[in-house]
Amino acid sequence: MIAGIRSGAVVGIDGYAVRVEVDLARGLPAFTIVGLPNAAVRESRERVAAAIRNSGFEFPLKKITVNLAPADVRKEGAAFDLPIAVGILAAGGQVSRSVPAGTLVLGELALDGTLAPVRGALPVACFARDDGCDRLVIPEGNAAEAAAVGGVEIAACRDLREAIGVIEGRLRPRSVDPAPSADETDDGLDFSQVRGQEAATRAVLVAAAGGHHLLMVGPPGAGKTMLARRIPSILPALEKSEALENAKIRSVTAGGRLRELPRRRPFRAPHHSASDAGLVGGGRLASPGEITLAHNGVLFLDELTEFRRNVLETLRQPLEEGRITISRARAVCTYPARFQLVAAMNPCPCGYDGDGRRPCTCTPLQAKRYRSRISGPLLDRIAIHVRVRAVDMRLAGARPGVGSARMAALVLSAYERQKRRFRDAERTRRNADIPAAALAQTCAMEPAASRLVEEASRHLSLSARSVAHILRVARTIADLDEAELIGARHVGEAVQYRMSLAPGT
Fold it and tell me: Which helix (H) or strand (E) is 442 found in, with range?
């Protein structure tokens, strides 16, 4: 007696099909699960047996073999409890053996037969929709996040008996409202609170408008962290496709229930003691790291030079490609990692090189060694470098700076221009993503601007990547000015952001 139940699992943040096959044969009572199950899957034997008995069904005293296909992919978690239980009951004839082919079943069972939410329900729901499934039977705790996908009927069930009734057609699935979008939280951080940092604020505005990576260098207390913490207040809300991407990441990492879909772009600020696995992902199970949690948002690395160099070097490939592939003995996962890097550092060990108010106590060799903790290739991938000067305390009572609302309107206007420009491009969303092959077509310039780019490249010995950064940043500055052609003033400002942060500058 064999029964087959359609189920799903997650690799990375993408769902894939798993077929749960159950065979009941004569022989000594046994319960075996094959198909590369991990410890949590193997322990489902006890959960399933107790849930079946406590739900009023009879647990068959036969030789039970459960196969999780494909057999060469490792299975993890407790989400196969419900399909295994349904398969055992169907193979034993206690429920209908004709489980609809378009029904996908997922859920963790408690010992009393109730269903607990599982991790990764949203990616599985996306897979079910794309794979042509008609219905997804899942725990009630996962129903709202799965309903946000659309295109597939969500059958939310409280326990095993209700799930069986829905599968057999005796019970009608309860209606489910999609998870609401998260309300915007007012954390009180506004750029109007920033005084005397007009140049740095302008650099932040340009970086936010085009999604460009930003490095701020300045003495302690100059306001680098203050500026970075206010960047989320000027970024536009996540679009629906972006919100779904970020919700899938949270569904995989949240450990179960996702109560609402994010609207605000993520802002991640890991401590400088973070390991390479914590930053880019990894570990035994190839888990996502901070760069994936910052997808479609901002990754802020404060005290950049205090991060271990080998940790920072792992950022070089994700900064270019917008994704990270983690290879481990038991898993190979590709995670999205299109984030905006914002970093802050002091210019030297004492922090006062070029301050002008306090003398620097570092020797030239000490300052050189300090700055060399950040490799040239990594710095070359950061489009905007800006010096943040110390602020005179007399500015504390000065007129407030430009508020976040005004800056957010400018950023949104630039975003809309970029959206129209790249509406037919598959992987390009912002000016920072413009591929090198499309720069000539996208970054049309006035003759004076072209000459200025050539002169800057020659006199500053810029790399090809640096020139490409100048063009992308100039395109963003032109978008802020609502200009179709890039002018000399746009290029001039972009070149200024690529100037070397030499001592005393």
Answer: helix 439-442
Residue partners of 21: CB distance under 8 A and separation at least 6: 2, 3, 4, 66, 67, 68, 69, 87
3-class DSSP state of 250: helix
Kindly give the interhelix angle for 447-459 and 464-480, rounded to the nearest 10 degrees.
140
Of 136, 131, 140, 72, nearest to 100 by C-alpha is 136
Cβ neighbours of residue 215 under 8 Å, at least 6 residues apart? 304, 343, 344, 345, 379, 382, 384, 385, 386
Distance CA 158, CA 156 (A): 7
Place of tokens 């570990």: 283
CB 96 within 8 A of CB 55: no
SS3 of 194-215: the string is CCCCHHHHHHHHHHHHHCCCEE
Q: How far apart are CA 120 and CA 491, in angstroms?
A: 46
- Backbone φ and ψ for 183, nearest 5 degrees, come out as -70, 145
Rounded-to-integer distance, Cα 401 and Cα 190, Å:
10
Give this prediction's pTM.
Answer: 0.88
342: tokens are 């914002």
Q: How do residues 176-209 score in pLDDT, each as one tens digit?
A: 888 777 655 667 888 988 888 889 999 999 999 9
Burial letters 429-450, b for 16+ CB under 10 A, else e = bbbbbbeeeeeeebbebbeebe
pLDDT tens string 397-438: 566 678 899 999 999 999 999 999 998 887 888 999 999 889
Question: CA 300 to CA 294: how far, in whole Å?
Answer: 9
How many Å apart are CA 57 and CA 160, to the nearest integer? 10
